Amino acid sequence: MKDFFISYANADSAWAEWIAWQFEEAGYSVIIQVWDFRPGSDFIAEMDRATREAQRTIAVLSQKYFQSQFTQAEWSVAFRKGKLLPVRILDFDVEGLLSVRVYIDLVGKGEAAARDVLIAGVRSERVKPLVPPQFPGAAPVERTITAPPRFPGAPQVRARLDESLLQLILYVNTRSPDEEGGLPEDVRNIRDWFWQRSASARWLSVEPSRLENRLDEASLVVTDWSSKNSPEAEDVCRRIRSRRPDLPILIVYSGQGRSPNRKAFIDTDPKGARGARSIEIHADVLSELPRIGEAIQSIDFQPREPKLILHPPENDVHVIEEMIGWIKDRQQLRLIIQKFFPKAEHAHLQSPGAEWAEARLCLVAIEGRIYFLKFFDQRNLYLTELDRHGQARPWLGNVAAALQPIPELVDQREAFPVFGPSRYPVCYDLGASHDRPRITLKECYRSMSDKFVEEALERLLEVLATDQPDGYSTERPWGDPNESVFHRTRELKTSVLASLDDLWPYLPRMYAKRGLFQSAGEASRAFIAGFLRSGVGTALSERVRGSAWKDYLEKLHRLVYSPLPSWLTTHAPVAKGHIHGNPISRNCLVDRDKPWDLRLINCGGYRANGRLVSDLALIERDLKLALMNTEVGAPGFLDLEVEQLSKWRREESRAISDGLNYTFRPTLTSPRSVCRAYRLISKVRQRAREVSERDDNGRQYFAALLYWTLEILQYPEARPTKKLLALHSAAEIIRRFDA
Q1: What is the enclosing helix (H) or strand (E) of 612?
Q2: Given 30, 230, 360, 501, which residue has the most CB atoms within 10 angstroms?
Q3: Is 657 exposed, middle or buried (0-12, 13-18, 19+ CB in 10 A)?
């Protein structure tokens, strides 16, 4: 059963694909003709199947929709069943039966706003406002405003900027005055040039009729001049000169030559060669950042440079140098932090005590308050984090760390353009300070008491269980972040085989029985002889449990080379709802004194209709990774003594064998790290049982655990002991369900 069938006219296919993409990014499943009706299929039969299998039909409304041959049949079936949800994409009057249906209206909205309205419109919950409505019985206020009110569809005028901190750059839009608020692509290049050099510039696009509203506080005006808009451009420049004679003007011109009227506004420079009041630059060269720089440097306007001073912690002076080495420029690091905190003069950097594979991060203290800066090196990951974090907030509430905004900036993505160093930061406000610090849950595993850690994990599981719908779907076991079938990528296959090849030296220590061999070398020779060369040294291989490991090895090889086993391809019930996407210990920040007071970051994997077992399986995997680091006697290259690995292996075998009913039972010889890890895993399994009540043997949960476990092998920084346990765990999962 799919969530939505997209019904549209061919003329609106671009809109239909955009809508389908937004739904799938939000975690919903979609049927759409252009993606799902394959060549050679029966169109009528496919359409009939789609209308029957989808829970709701999305009608993409335009004039063309009502002229199409097939759309009426599609929407009428859904209308009759009460499954129709219209989405209006063009401004026209909806008539007939559909006029009585409340529709989602995307007309006149930008992409971000349209996405929010679309996703909010398909949710069934109430849309109660976050602030109370004004009391309707209040006495009427005497009217003192005689000017007509602003058009409601126009962008709201912001309060006056603090000119001691920020510089307002006005773009007067004479190209398309009706499109107020946006910038043409070539003008965006100028804006991006400023963002690479200054934290103080703020751009505002205004139509010519509203120029005077912000002219007094502007530091620079950018406007267009071409043969098509020459009268309007001349009028704009005259009005600027009349009110602000010394205000710098940058004229973007197109066409050939210089018109006499435009020439009258171009300085020959009353203030010298580098102090012109107005200059011109051809639109064709705005893609060349050096040319933009030359133009800006010749005008009487200088972008403010960051004033921020960076301070390292007393006990780790290398924190700043490490960040600068990655960002490649001290000035850029200062600039990035200054964008979030334009008033700040000092920033104290600290190490967060955890590492990320996909991003760099640091703690920043500004005037006693501590923020968490996470730097992405891929813009798509950065944009996804911004969007998904906002989508997750209504579910997680205050547990989702607030995003620290860049002041006086409507679109936060604007501040970090594609040009220049590819470092895209997200700043989280954790509600932390020097007096009330937060540490990662991963650090708690290492330094806090068992009781504290258990309470923090229980709180995390409680948060993830909050406000979940009672929804189930019957699907193939989960297998990758997109929640499709178990997808064996080339990277996964290569990492499994490479890990098996690399870890031979450690296998004898993990599987050898005590006292049977003089040395690890003898065990190694026996072990290799036992299953690499069939029929040679079989007796010796039995002495090192070669037959058991040979069976595990064969199962891992089959997972790489053979068709997927039936338990990974047969449909099974799975609970669906909100998932964080990556709720591991380094993404959970805990108050040192209050284990129940936590904040979640890194919501880029959020889905409104994801499989609940995904988050839980990730938490279990993370517990093993984090707690294998806590053995006191571990040598530098490894996470723990190899002798201890056999104890981890035995407990992991029991945890897989007992399935969702697993409960940890310590022994006298269980290391502290094993006790802590598997006691916490017992709590995760308890929650997994609750969400898997229709999946008796937990296939969905263990398929997710298998995928996330094998993913460890792709991490270059994962140490051998972790990879050894991952291989063993994967083989045990396969063995259990193959049986």
Answers
A1: helix 612-627
A2: 30
A3: exposed
Q: Which two tokens stand for residue 152?
A: 């409601």
Cα–Cα distances (Å) from 55 to 51, 459, 554, 559, in that order, read 8, 34, 43, 35
Instruction: Give the model's pLDDT for residue 171.
Output: 92
Highest mean pLDDT among 405-414, 526-535, 537-546: 405-414
Please report the sign of the dihedral spanned by the C-alpha atoms of residue 634, residue 636, residue 638, residue 642. Answer: negative
For 644, phi and psi rounded to 5 degrees? -75, -20
Helices and strands, counts by H and E, the chain: 25, 22
Quote the tokens at residue 179: 């499109």
Any residues with CB less than 8 A from the CB of 640 and at least 6 apart, and which? 628, 629, 631, 633, 634, 648, 671, 673, 721
Task: Report CA 254 to chain centroid distance, whole Å.
Answer: 40
Give the SS3 label for residue 306: coil
Query: What is the average per-residue pLDDT within 427-452?
Result: 88
pLDDT, tens digit, 9 for 90 and up, residues 643-657:
677 888 889 999 999
Determine the average pLDDT of the residues in 146-158. Answer: 38
Per DSSP, the three-state class of 92 is coil
Long-range CB contact pairs, 664-670, < 8 A, 24+: none
Structure tokens at 668: 């006298």
Q: Structure tokens of 615?
A: 């988050």
Long-range contact set of residues 512-519: C-beta below 8 Å, sequence gap at least 24 = 512/544, 512/545, 513/543, 513/544, 513/545, 516/543, 516/544, 517/543, 517/544
What separation in angstroms does the CA of 364 have from each of 55, 196, 201, 341?
Answer: 47, 21, 23, 11
Whether pTM exceeds 0.90: no
Output the average pLDDT for the chain: 79
Distance CA 42, CA 350 (A): 62
Q: How far apart are CA 342 and CA 335, in angstroms?
A: 10
Residue 412 or 317, more confident: 412
- Tell me what the mean pLDDT of segment 535-545 comes to: 40
What pLDDT digit, counting tens, does each position of 156-209 carry? 444 455 667 789 999 998 876 544 457 888 888 899 889 988 899 999 888 888
Element (H, E) at 652: helix 642-657
User: How many C-beta neighbours within 10 Å does residue 433 have?
Assistant: 13
| 3-state secondary structure at position 268 | coil
Residue 331's pLDDT is 83
pLDDT of the residue at 549 = 61
Phi, psi of 417 (to 5 degrees): -75, 175
**C-alpha–C-alpha distance, residues 155 and 561, integer Å:** 58
Strands, sheet with 471-475, edge to edge from the N-terminal-most edge strand: 471-475, 572-579, 607-611
Rounded CA separation 577/647 (Å):
36
DSSP 98-156: GGGS--EE-TT--HHHHHHHHHHHH--S----SSPPPPTTSPPPPP---SPPPPTTSPP
- Residue 583's contacts (CB-CB under 8 Å, 6 or more residues apart) are 460, 464, 600, 615, 618, 619
Q: Is 217 exposed, middle or buried (0-12, 13-18, 19+ CB in 10 A)?
A: middle
Q: Could you tell me what percent of the chain has a pLDDT over 70?
A: 78
